């Protein structure tokens, strides 16, 4: 279990993390979300004692990280896949970590096999692709067989098979009763992986709730109806006091009423339905709705979906060169 109490961090005049209080519980995958600059990485660094809080407290199974003897046996973390000595082989990188935490050498072989790096165990890490580096970082997190695991953007650089594997790995770890805390910008993956969400924006706690409650509380849900007898269906719905939105293309949207109730109502009036489907917003839509006022960095374009024009430097003569300057001779200078 990870417990944060009033955790705060100042960098000069900038308030990066502001009075965060929440608990990451065992047995579930807890997702950690927030826009760029929200304070997620700073929060995770303070959990691991890499940054000191300006105020507040964070405890790992009731202790500060610095109080943990052989900390890899308590908590394993992947914060930066490139945080390794590039001149060491994958095996030797993990062996150094193991020896520093009293972990047997046999465990190195086990985690290399778990993450699929056994064939390249003796190759130097500097030659690894981003995905291979991610796998090695995950192996380091698993090395001490800890009860608590933290992953920051764990699917970066992984191919579809690797993404599927890490998703199932996190679920499996939580299913074993471990505490799993994962930060990611990939909403589609988070929606498939996390059971609980902690959302922050500009250092403030915005939400601490289950995945289903988060989507329900921050988005619109409705029932979509289509019928070849649309006018008659509209009359029946209005007579029943049900508010309907005509969405175009012969589609009706009803915010109140369950699919079962609407289906029974149509059947009672002998109406044919070509569609009766509950609609729920995605995690991405709910996240965008909640954090709209907390986004620090906005991209702007003159037209939606069109990147801004490339600004070319002025021609050479405007920089003080003569008209007869030979550009071909100086190409690439």
From TrEMBL:
One of its GO terms (molecular function) is ATP binding. PANTHER family: ABC TRANSPORTER, ATP-BINDING PROTEIN (PTHR43335:SF4). It comes from the Bacteria. Keywords: ATP-binding, Nucleotide-binding, Transport. Residues 324-333 have a biased composition (Basic and acidic residues). The keyword Transmembrane does not apply. Belongs to the ABC transporter superfamily. It comes from Streptomyces sp. NBC_00119. Coiled coil: none annotated. Residues 299-333 are annotated as: Disordered. Signal peptide: none annotated. Residues 305-317 have a biased composition (Pro residues). Gene3D superfamilies: P-loop containing nucleotide triphosphate hydrolases. Residues 2-227 form the ABC transporter domain. SMART domains: AAA. This is ATP-binding cassette domain-containing protein.
């Amino acid at each position: 279990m990870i417990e944060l109490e009033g955790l705060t961090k100042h960098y000069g005049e900038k308030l990066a993390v502001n009075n965060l209080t929440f608990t990451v519980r065992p047995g579930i995958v807890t997702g950690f979300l927030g826009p760029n600059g929200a304070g997620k990485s700073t929060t995770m660094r303070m959990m691991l004692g890499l940054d000191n809080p300006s105020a507040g407290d964070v405890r790992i199974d009731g202790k500060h990280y610095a109080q943990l003897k052989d900390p890899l046996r308590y908590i394993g973390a992947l914060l930066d896949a490139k945080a390794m000595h590039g001149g060491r082989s994958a095996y030797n990188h993990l062996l150094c970590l193991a020896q520093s935490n009293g972990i047997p050498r046999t465990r190195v072989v086990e985690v290399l096999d778990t993450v699929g790096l056994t064939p390249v165990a003796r190759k130097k890490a500097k030659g690894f692709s981003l995905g291979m580096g991610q796998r090695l970082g995950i192996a380091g997190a698993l090395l001490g067989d800890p009860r608590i695991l933290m992953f920051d953007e764990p699917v970066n650089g992984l191919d579809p098979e690797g993404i599927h594997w890490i998703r199932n790995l996190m679920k499996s770890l939580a299913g074993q009763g471990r505490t799993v805390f994962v930060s990611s910008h990939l909403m589609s993956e988070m929606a498939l992986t996390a059971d609980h969400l902690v959302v922050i924006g500009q250092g403030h706690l915005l939400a601490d709730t289950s995945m289903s409650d988060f989507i329900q509380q921050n988005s619109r849900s409705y029932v979509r109806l289509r019928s070849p007898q649309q006018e008659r269906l509209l009359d029946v719905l209005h007579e029943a006091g049900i508010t309907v939105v005509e969405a175009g293309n012969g589609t009706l949207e009803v915010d109140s009423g369950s699919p079962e109730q609407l289906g029974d109502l149509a059947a009672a009036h002998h109406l044919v339905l070509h569609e009766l489907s509950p609609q729920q917003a995605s995690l991405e839509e709910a996240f965008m709705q909640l954090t709209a006022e907390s986004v620090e960095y906005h991209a702007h374009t003159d037209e939606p979906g069109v990147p801004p024009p490339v600004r070319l430097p002025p021609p050479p003569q405007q920089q003080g060169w003569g008209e007869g300057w030979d550009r071909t001779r100086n190409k690439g200078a």
